[in-house]
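User: Please predict the structure of the protein below. I'd like the answer in structure-token form so I can feed it into my own downstream comparison script.

Assistant: Understood. Taking the following sequence of 187 residues as input:
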Amino acid sequence: MFLKILIAFLIAVSLVAVVISLQPAQYRVVRTASFEAPPSATYNLISDFHNWSEWSPWAKLDPDMKQAFEGPRAGVGASYTWSGNKVAGEGSMTIVEAIPDERLAIQLAFTKPFASASKITFSLRPEGSGTSVEWAMDGESTFATKAIQVFASMDKMVGPDFEKGLAKLRPLAEEAARKQAKPALSH
């Protein structure tokens, strides 16, 4: 009897492992929003990690979160690390590419709740008198990521947070645009 239970268990574990291994090797999450602001107004908010507390969907997950900034204030080499509760996790972000008013690429590394790495990209494109803002995350699926994706895709887990972040970022960029326009109007 024990042997039959052991064999059934091993078959079940093998089937689960096969299902997990068949999940996509890579993931991509993308959200886009339109802002009534020039690209520069949005770029200034995303290229400086000190501004992220104003709009990031994860900024308020842990009021006691420890944060540190290293390198230049903004642009390539700027780095942000955090360590928070089990919801916020622990990790770092480093800007690896910065094309003012066009594109920002960030290397994201989580160490807790599990290790993972992703590339975050913000693409800004003029759209009429405003800007189309695209926020994307690309990464390789580890075995743990694939196991999670059996139940929920990365898009379903992270996409709503991107939407919340873009919704918070929009009024900040639009207000920054109004402030940029005021000095030009006074001349």
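That's the full token string. The first helix runs from residue 2 to 21.
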